[in-house]
């Protein structure tokens, strides 16, 4: 998303915001993310740079669920790979591992916690939530994925790209929607998650291991 696109998003949200101060604070939090994406500098940070305690706290605050452990998953090489495994087989292994091990995605957890509240905030048929989702998808998500995917190898791009998109989409949508609705409490619950997205992206929690989350790193 270029600077003009971000300014357009701000203008739209400002015209529909219930509390200017809440929206203004939320947009300030988003500026570092947008500037990195716009410049093409946005990359997943290495696993060594992941503050696991801070990541766990951010995910827990956003989802309302206890997070006991965070596991960094390398976007470049999410699974050990033997020399005899070709690209197609490796891509299928990654897809199967995600399908079998993920219990709930970040998007699913955020929807479970905030979906009803968001609909109550906007009222049925207001159309504002849909418009925000459309602008997030066409601007922020498209640009962020383009930047993030430069760090993904072609063999895993399809599999991890979908997870990246889903996590970014849900996080930014709920954050901006509640900012427009003037719900300062919910915005504050999502701020640490938005800050985490500048470097690492949560995917979801593990089946059979409640409280254990996968987070994408470089």
Structure in words:
The chain is 64% helix and 11% strand. The protein has helices at residues 3-16, 20-39, 52-63, 87-101, 106-122, 128-148, 154-181, 184-196; strands at 69-74, 102-105, 201-206, 209-217. The mean pLDDT is 87. It is an alpha+beta fold and 218 residues long. The chain is built from eight helices and four strands, in the order αααβαβααααββ.
Descriptive tags:
alpha+beta; 218 residues; single chain; 8 helices
What is the structure about, briefly put?
With 218 residues, this protein is an alpha+beta fold. Helices cover 64% and strands 11% of the residues. A four-stranded mixed sheet has the order 1-4-3-2.
Task: Tell how many strands the DSSP assignment holds.
Answer: 4
Sheet with most strands: strand arrangement: 1-4-3-2
Secondary-structure element pattern, one letter each: HHHEHEHHHHEE
- Shape field: globular
Low-confidence runs: none
Structure annotation, total helices: 8
The overall average pLDDT, rounded, is 87
Radius of gyration, in angstroms, nearest whole number: 17 Å
**Class from secondary-structure proportions:** alpha+beta
Distance between the termini: 22 Å
Strand proportion, as a percent range, falls in 5-15%
Summarize the SSE layout with pairings.
Elements: H1 3-16, H2 20-39, H3 52-63, E1 69-74, H4 87-101, E2 102-105, H5 106-122, H6 128-148, H7 154-181, H8 184-196, E3 201-206, E4 209-217
Parallel strand pairs: 1-4
Antiparallel strand pairs: 2-3, 3-4
Helix pairs in contact: 1-2, 1-6, 2-7, 2-8, 3-8, 4-7, 5-7, 6-7, 7-8
């Amino acid at each position: 998303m270029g600077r003009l696109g971000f300014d357009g998003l701000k203008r739209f949200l400002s015209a529909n915001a219930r509390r200017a101060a809440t929206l203004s604070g939320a947009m300030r939090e988003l500026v570092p993310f947008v500037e990195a994406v716009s410049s093409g500098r946005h990359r997943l940070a290495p696993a060594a740079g992941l503050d696991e305690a801070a990541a766990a706290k951010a995910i827990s605050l956003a989802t309302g669920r206890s997070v006991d452990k965070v596991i960094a998953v390398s976007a470049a090489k999410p699974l050990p790979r033997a020399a005899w495994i070709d690209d197609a087989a490796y891509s299928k292994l990654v897809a199967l591992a995600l399908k079998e091990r993920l219990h709930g995605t970040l998007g699913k957890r955020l929807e479970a916690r905030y979906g009803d509240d968001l609909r109550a905030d906007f009222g049925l048929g207001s159309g504002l939530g849909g418009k925000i989702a459309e602008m997030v998808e066409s601007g922020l998500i498209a640009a962020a994925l383009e930047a993030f995917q430069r760090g993904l190898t072609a063999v895993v791009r399809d599999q991890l790209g979908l997870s990246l998109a889903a996590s970014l989409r849900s996080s930014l949508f709920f954050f901006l929607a509640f900012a427009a609705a003037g719900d300062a409490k919910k915005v504050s619950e999502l701020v640490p998650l938005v800050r985490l997205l500048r470097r690492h992206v949560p995917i979801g929690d593990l089946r059979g291991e409640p409280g254990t989350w996968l987070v994408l790193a470089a």
